[in-house]
Design a protein that fits this description.
This protein is α+β, with helices and mostly antiparallel strands. The protein has eight helices and twelve strands.
Length: 257
């Protein structure tokens, strides 16, 4: 369920990035396209920034190489799970993986590329089991999934700011308000009564956290289906969720339903 134009652009992006082919890389972006992420900071727009990120990949990012593995779309955005490798502090090559959020314009040019990963393999700094995610944010993410799985919409609502928004693959670009959020959740579990999700690995970039999850749901025909996806949490300064987006492939469940 990924737009073929977006998929082709993503493939072109990774080919150009790995080849350090600047002209081909820049051709994937709008001139005002923004780039940012875990190490590179809050997304900044412009061709100069796009060039700087590509050139940094050869040095400061440990000669990073990436290949797309799984794609999930929600409106003009595509979350890409990727795997790759970097030059380790020891001098050898070590595997890395992460998530990149792409946002596209109407011509399938990249408006935003935001990279989420754990750069410990590059820096060698931090404990081996470090995730790089703020502990308070991780607690909020775990509380969100616990509330969802327990159908405790009041508890889930308290995790959001007053103007917090919810959107995603089936939910649309973004809806606000406690009553609206409750209606979305109730509609989801009415359609798929046994849907449950469990958070897995997560990566942080400034106030945003991209979290893998896996789960299981039962369609109306009674058949169980494993599901996977990515949730993107944007946290306010007070630690509450200001924006939530869910990216996944519901086609198997929709076909059942």
């Amino acid at each position: 369920m990924v737009d073929p134009r977006f998929k082709a652009r993503i493939e072109a992006y990774y080919r150009a990035f790995n080849a350090r082919a600047e002209d081909a890389y820049l051709a994937c972006f709008r001139p005002d396209g923004a780039v940012g992420g875990t190490l590179t900071g809050t997304p900044v727009s412009g061709v100069g920034v796009q060039k700087a990120i590509l050139r940094t990949a050869c040095g400061g990012l440990g000669d990073l190489m990436m290949s797309p593995v799984t794609l999930y779309q929600a409106q003009s955005e595509v979350m890409v799970v990727w795997a790759g490798e970097v030059r380790a502090p020891s001098g050898g090559r070590t595997p890395v993986h992460g998530i990149t959020l792409f946002d596209f314009d109407e011509d399938a040019k990249i408006r935003l590329a935001q990279v989420f990963w754990n750069p410990r393999a590059l820096t060698g700094v931090g404990p081996a089991d470090s995730t790089g995610v703020d502990p308070h944010h991780r607690e909020a993410i775990e509380a969100y999934f616990e509330g969802f799985n327990g159908r405790d919409w009041t508890a889930v609502g308290l995790l959001f700011t007053e103007e917090g928004s919810f959107g995603g693959t089936l939910a649309g670009p973004g809806l606000r308000g406690e009553a609206t959020l409750r209606a979305i959740y109730e509609s989801a579990v009415s359609r798929f009564p046994e849907i449950r999700m469990r958070p897995l690995e997560a990566f942080q970039a400034q106030g945003d956290v991209a979290a893998h999850w896996e789960g299981r749901a039962i369609g109306h025909d009674g058949l169980a289906q494993d599901i996977r996806g990515i949730s993107l949490f944007r946290f306010a300064e007070d630690g509450r969720i200001a924006r939530y987006r869910i990216y996944w492939n519901p086609r198997p469940l929709l076909e059942q339903a």
